[in-house]
């Protein structure tokens, strides 16, 4: 209707003018019911999941519900993405548990306070990233190492929950130590707990086979609570959660002395969390923005993520992150704005106020089964296979990252993941596949491998460098040009670098070009350049390469080089 169109237009203008409500406005009135239904669906699916994440983070059960209360509302109001769902996440929860394991006992008040401090510190990193407009840093954690990292986290999480499903004593720290302990104590397992865990897995997996919209986890949790209450499963050795506090979280700073020593101890863990939040949230938001052709501002999103973690730290829960799985849940249920997340938070508010009593009867094996399944789903076997098929070298990078999580730890592996991502990036630029350009009667110009040593016309060779020129590939640039000139038959008079694919030349590469110019000049070979972009031409000016080569050594296209070469000595070559 015209009225709705005018209102939506005005709302869109407000959304552009102010950071607030970017994930909600413009809002179509006709979509409100669908958004609310999607929010209710997310609550049904996410409530058991976030309670499961508390087993990973080592925090009290109720803190899982807190992660989708205030933090989710803050992101919905201040974030940029219309689709990203912010809440508890297995990767950051695992980093949290690893980072504070030596500083407090899991589940203790001190552990929870340290969790809150970490959320606030991660928020500070996000705030600094926003001030410096560093949203682009999310691109530096490659998809390859992210697949490996999350797969390693999945293995660690799944193995850690086996003892809970079997009602065995906690296995301690470390994936391998857990496995060894489980094997050693397997004769002490509780069969009833195992049956409960298997039943939960069957219900969840079976419901997904029927429809992803069926809240299998919620059905399994409710069924297990009823069975535990009706059959008094405690008398069969099944552990239950016991009383769960109701009501709203207490707002305030974490109850721990915050000083420089504490900040120094927690800084590596907080930074590791920051990197995962930055990369995972941005990747998810960017994917959904592209799918729906929507505007997405990474730097504005940092504000929403920062405030979400401030809310987490001040409301007695642990760090939150953009969740790909929860985002997919909302999208599958028909939600297309942050209104769905606001509806989810309202449902959680009702649960906290009126429905925490029944949670006391929940068997611990239920949550262990839910988390075990979350861990298994994080192990991206298909993704690893695809990487191996397309990029075998990158597969080993992903595998090393996963192994580091399993054998070393989550916190250390995220730093390794950053290093490996940079190695992958540098390797792509280092192993650049350059080409020689030769004329083609039908295509105009044709690329051929450097090994062919083909000349455009006798005495002229055009060499296209297929990457930015920088320190990692400057030696390749020097070696290939030197060898091409040395082995040219007939000998070259001109050597042309086609710079169409070059948009940056660093100091090392500029020094290499100076050396090449001198070496070729000593062999009576003229070095010229074509198709250089304006930005790179400016870099040549600043570094003195333009004066060194001569202003008439730069040509707009390969054809201009050929024409000038054929006219050399005839007075036809013009200075450009």
Outline the secondary-structure elements.
Elements: H1 2-17, H2 32-57, H3 62-66, H4 70-78, E1 85-87, H5 90-100, H6 109-131, H7 143-165, H8 175-185, H9 191-210, H10 216-231, H11 260-291, H12 298-314, E2 321-323, H13 324-332, H14 339-354, H15 364-378, H16 381-390, H17 392-407, H18 410-430, E3 435-440, E4 444-449, E5 460-464, H19 474-487, E6 494-498, H20 507-522, E7 526-530, H21 534-543, H22 545-549, E8 554-555, H23 558-567
Parallel strand pairs: 5-6, 6-7, 7-8
Antiparallel strand pairs: 1-2, 3-4, 3-5
Helix pairs in contact: 2-5, 2-10, 2-13, 2-14, 2-15, 4-12, 4-14, 5-11, 6-11, 6-12, 7-8, 7-15, 7-16, 7-17, 7-18, 9-10, 9-15, 11-12, 11-18, 16-17, 17-18, 19-20
Query: What is the β-strand count?
Result: 8
For the sheet with most strands, the description reads: 6 strands, mixed
**Counting H and I runs of at least 4 residues, what is the number of helices?**
23
Radius of gyration: 30 Å
Tell me the strand percentage band: 5-15%
Structural class: alpha/beta
Strand order of the largest sheet: 4-3-5-6-7-8
Low-pLDDT runs of 5+ residues are: 1-18, 571-576
User: How widely separated are the two ends?
Assistant: 60 Å
Please bin the fraction of helical residues.
Answer: 55-70%
Q: What overall geometry do the principal axes of the alpha carbons give?
A: elongated
User: Structurally, how many domains make up the residues?
Assistant: 2
Mean pLDDT: 86
């Amino acid at each position: 209707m015209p009225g709705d169109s005018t209102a939506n237009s005005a709302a869109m203008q407000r959304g552009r003018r102010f950071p607030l409500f970017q994930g909600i406005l413009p809002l179509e009135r006709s979509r409100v019911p669908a958004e609310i239904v999607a929010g209710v669906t997310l609550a049904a699916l996410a409530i058991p999941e976030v309670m499961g994440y508390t087993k990973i983070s080592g925090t009290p059960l109720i803190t899982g519900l807190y992660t989708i209360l205030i933090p989710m509302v803050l992101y919905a109001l201040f974030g940029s993405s219309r689709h990203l769902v912010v809440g508890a996440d297995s990767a950051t929860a695992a980093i949290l548990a690893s980072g504070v394991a030596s500083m407090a006992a899991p589940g203790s008040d001190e552990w929870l306070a340290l969790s809150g401090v970490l959320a606030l510190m991660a928020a500070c990193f996000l705030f600094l990233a926003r001030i410096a407009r560093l949203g682009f840093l999310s691109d530096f954690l490659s998809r390859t190492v992210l697949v490996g990292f999350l797969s390693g986290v999945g293995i660690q999480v799944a193995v850690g929950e086996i003892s809970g499903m079997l009602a065995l004593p906690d296995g301690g720290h470390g994936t391998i130590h857990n496995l060894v302990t489980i094997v050693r104590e397997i004769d002490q397992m509780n069969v009833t707990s195992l049956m409960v865990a298997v039943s939960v897995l069957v219900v969840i997996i079976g419901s997904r086979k029927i429809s992803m919209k069926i809240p299998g986890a919620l059905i399994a949790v409710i069924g297990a609570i009823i069975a535990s209450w009706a059959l008094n499963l405690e008398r069969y050795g099944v552990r239950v959660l016991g009383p769960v506090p109701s009501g709203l979280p207490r707002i305030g700073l974490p109850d721990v002395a915050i000083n420089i020593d504490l900040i120094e101890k927690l800084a590596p863990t907080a930074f590791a969390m920051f990197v995962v939040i930055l990369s995972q949230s941005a990747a998810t938001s960017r994917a959904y923005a592209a799918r729906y052709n929507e505007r997405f501002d990474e730097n504005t999103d940092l504000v929403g993520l920062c405030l979400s973690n401030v809310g987490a730290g001040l409301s007695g829960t642990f760090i939150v992150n953009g969740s790909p799985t929860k985002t997919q849940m909302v999208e599958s249920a028909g939600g297309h704005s942050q209104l769905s997340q606001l509806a989810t938070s309202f449902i959680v508010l009702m649960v906290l106020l009126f429905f925490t009593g029944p949670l006391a009867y929940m068997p611990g094996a239920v949550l262990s089964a839910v988390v075990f399944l979350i861990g298994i789903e994080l192990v991206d076997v298909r993704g690893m296979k695809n990487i191996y098929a397309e990029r075998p070298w990158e597969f080993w990078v992903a595998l090393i990252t996963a192994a580091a999580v399993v054998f070393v730890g989550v916190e250390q592996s995220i730093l390794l993941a950053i290093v490996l991502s940079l190695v992958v990036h540098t390797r792509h630029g280092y192993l650049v596949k350059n080409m020689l350009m030769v004329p083609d009667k039908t295509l105009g110009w044709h690329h051929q491998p450097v090994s062919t040593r083909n000349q455009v016309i006798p005495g002229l060779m055009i060499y296209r460098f297929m990457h930015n020129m920088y320190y990692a590939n400057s030696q390749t640039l020097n070696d290939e040009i030197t060898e091409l000139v040395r082995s040219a038959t007939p000998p070259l008079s001109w050597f042309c670098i086609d710079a169409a694919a070059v948009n940056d030349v660093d100091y090392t590469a500029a020094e290499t070009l100076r050396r090449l110019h001198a070496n070729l000049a000593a062999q009576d070979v003229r070095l010229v350049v074509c198709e250089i972009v304006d930005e790179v031409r400016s870099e040549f000016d600043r570094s003195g390469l333009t004066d060194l080569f001569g202003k008439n050594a730069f040509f707009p296209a390969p054809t201009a080089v050929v024409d000038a070469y054929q006219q050399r000595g005839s007075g036809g070559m013009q200075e450009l």
